[in-house]
Amino acid sequence: MELHLLIVSLMVCSTLGVPTRGRIFGGDPASPGQFPYIVALNNVDQFCDGSIINKNWILTAAHCLPDITSNTSVLVGTNIEHSGGTTYSISKAIAHEDYDSNTTQNDLGLIQIDGEFEFSDTVQAIEFGDPEENASCVAVGWGATEHVSFPEELQFVELRALSLEECQERVGDLDPFYLGPEQVCALGPEGKGVCFGDSGGPLVCGGKLAGVVSYSVSVLPAVTHNVRVIGGNTAQPGQFPFAVSIMMPSFGQNWCGGTIISKNSILTAAQCMNNLFPEDVVVVAGTVDLRTGGTVYNISQVTIHPTFNETNLIDDIAVVKVDGEFEISESVQIAEIGEVLDNDTCTVSGWGATENINAPASLMFANLRALSVEECDKLAEDGVFDVERGPGQVCGFGGRGNGVCYGDAGDSLTSKGKFVGIASYAVAQCAVGWPDIYTRVAYYKDWINTII
Ligand SMILES: *[C@@H]1O[C@H](CO)[C@@H](O)[C@H](O)[C@H]1NC(C)=O
Ligand SMILES: *[C@@H]1O[C@H](CO)[C@@H](O)[C@H](O)[C@H]1NC(C)=O
Ligand SMILES: *[C@@H]1O[C@H](CO)[C@@H](O)[C@H](O)[C@H]1NC(C)=O
Ligand SMILES: *[C@@H]1O[C@H](CO)[C@@H](O)[C@H](O)[C@H]1NC(C)=O
Ligand SMILES: *[C@@H]1O[C@H](CO)[C@@H](O)[C@H](O)[C@H]1NC(C)=O
Ligand SMILES: *[C@@H]1O[C@H](CO)[C@@H](O)[C@H](O)[C@H]1NC(C)=O
Predict the structure, then answer these.
(1) For a tag on the chain, would you pick the N or C end, based on fewer CB atoms within 10 A?
(2) Has this prediction a pTM greater than 0.70?
(3) With contact defined as beta carbons under 8 Å apart, do 136 and 110 qualify?
(4) Is 377 helix (H, G, I), strand (E, B) or coil?
(5) Where are any strands of DSSP class E within 391-448?
(6) Which parts of the sequence belong to the Peptidase S1 domain (predicted)?
């Protein structure tokens, strides 16, 4: 028996090029009994999925197992997370003996339930199968959909199983994540906003269980909640006093970057605030370490650019007003908007993990060069995400292999002490010679002034 791990779906999801564990975005709701082998692993909320493989065993991802407690329940036989179905408790959980949590190699886990499943139309085991190259597959899970909150209904998305070669070509170096022949790489349809399946959930090809969702890589932007400035330097307190974090308190994580532009407003990327309830995030100003210090502000108003296009990320800019006023100090300052010229040296700053995707909360920065339109087009043309760009954008390039990546969406780009750009997206994955795209702030000055 060969079992593979679904690793990649290369489409719009939550990060730019950094592997994330995750969820289905842009899926369709499943009908009752359509996926009778799916199980939800629930603590207070659902945290992973799995598949029933016989009367009392479930297959999931090894990285789901550390979250299992004596209170974890297994929900089967329903499409709706908080209604119907049957729950079981867990008697045993075993990770693959060669599972490596650093690289995700052998990310498989088995869970034994107390007792036996009662099979029915909505509760069934699934057989293993090996997907053919380019097979049409589905990933199933209770993933997040439009906004951050998890949907109640089971979702599925159609994906294509890629050959290892095509996968490697598309994603490049995933270091430290492992990509090898015992994994399946699956790709979502372009533009559909498909992201990844829930961790531990099934990848089903031709009615057979072909994989377990392990991790995903996206090469497109959209709301980011993971790390960015890769291989940059750690900022000193007060070095970027205009940089704020838009944080999601419920996850304790940076969601996007932002830049203070007036006593009570910041600029960020439109993609950061689109499809998000303002009450789900807060603005944190005045610290270089999100775990300590800083002042937290609630959001009072969000204005997304009226012609923001979610598909090509033209006009990716939003003004966010906070409740109250920023208290100006050495570590909290209003940025001055400036112009950026071709070949100017710029600095992107933002909060992000570096090596470990779950890690730090430190403000990082990296230097890059603003490219001319011609140079940008030339470098971007082989990128995975090559769309037209306009005068409201500026292209930045950190160089190949030096480890510099782009910022989280919304992060500040500065040049000669002025605020010149908002991190928007990367043409392809990090640090392999493709440019990153920023919203050119000066281009939007009139629009900004009508709001602040
Ligand atoms: C399990 O739930 C009980 C009751 O809600 C709670 O007191 C206990 O701390 C929980 N145990 C774990 C390991 O989460
Ligand atoms: C994972 O990385 C950490 C930190 O570098 C190291 O201590 C640990 O031994 C590694 N684990 C494995 C399984 O290699
Ligand atoms: C799979 O699809 C790719 C891209 O469309 C194509 O190049 C390749 O030949 C296909 N492989 C098979 C076995 O059909
Ligand atoms: C933010 O809003 C929440 C809910 O309305 C409130 O409880 C909290 O005190 C507010 N925080 C600040 C810093 O104003
Ligand atoms: C958004 O961009 C896509 C891709 O370039 C384009 O097809 C679509 O028409 C644009 N939408 C609007 C409303 O302009
Ligand atoms: C920018 O740099 C490129 C590559 O080094 C060079 O070819 C070009 O002439 C420079 N442009 C300007 C305006 O300095």
Answers:
(1) N
(2) no
(3) no
(4) helix
(5) 393-397, 412-415, 418-426, 436-440
(6) 24-452
Looking at residue 259, its amino acid is T
Q: How many whole angstroms from 123 Cα to the centroid of ligand 1?
A: 28
Residues 6+ apart with CB under 8 A from 450: none
Q: Per-residue pLDDT tens for 292-321?
A: 889 999 999 999 999 998 878 899 999 999
How far, in Å, CA of 365 to CA of 128, rounded?
Answer: 46
HEC assignment per residue over 156-206: EEEEEEECHHHHHHHHCCCCCCCCCCCEEEEECCCCCCCCCCCCCCEEEEC
User: pLDDT for 259-270, tens place per residue?
Assistant: 999 999 999 999
Which of 5, 385, 37 has its CA nearest to residue 186?
5
Give the C-alpha separation, 232 to 230, whole Å.
Answer: 5
Q: Is residue 436 annotated as a catalytic residue, yes or no?
A: no
Ligand at shortest distance from the CA of 280: 4
| 207 CA distance to ligand 1 middle (Å) | 38
Cα 63 to averaged position of ligand 2 atoms, centre (Å) = 14
Quick one: the chain helix, strand, coil %, rounded to 5? 10, 35, 55
Q: Using alpha carbons, select from 388, 447, 439, 451 the residue that is nearest to residue 409.
A: 439
Asked if the bond preceding 176 is cis, omega within 30° of 0, the reply is yes
pLDDT of residue 317: 97
Cβ–ligand 3 distance for 91 under 6 Å, the answer: no
Task: Reply yes or no on whether 63 is catalytic.
Answer: yes
Catalytic site residue 280?
Answer: no
Q: Of the residues 99, 102, 104, which should be mutated to test ligand 2's pocket, given the most ligand atoms within 8 Å of the CB?
A: 102
Decide: 355 in ligand 2 pocket, CB within 6 A: no
Strand order in the sheet with 299-304: 295-297, 282-285, 243-248, 253-262, 265-268, 318-322, 299-304
- Whether the pLDDT of residue 56 is over 70: the answer is yes
